[in-house]
Amino acid sequence: MTVGNRSGFLALIIGALLVWSTASPAHHGWGWATDEEFEITGTITDVRLGNPHGEVTIEVDGAEWVIEVGQPWRNKRAGLKDELLSVGREITVHGHRSARKGQRLVKAERVVIDGEDYNLYPGRDS
Q1: Residues 55 and 68: beta-carbon distance below 8 Å
Q2: What is the pTM for the complete model shown?
Q3: How much is the average pLDDT of 40-45?
């Protein structure tokens, strides 16, 4: 590989990393959600757990909402076992909904299942 080709390749890699690093925070973190506290209760219809965070789909009055729960370590720390997030179970979610109009997406701070609280973010009021 010549010096010119290496420089072009390096510029391409740096550019790709910059695009990836600026696009990634657009969803992760809290920037995409409103500051307003939000509560919703529904029945779990689908579950996808893992990294970067788990997602639980719930049905509420015929509409599907996607709930972002914590990363596996965060759920475990809160005592929220995978078995508790099972299809057919009722769940109440306290957190923040998407700031994007019409998007039914909520970032959970705390969930309630069978009357038990699981606080995913103990340092935040929820």
Answers
A1: yes
A2: 0.74
A3: 98
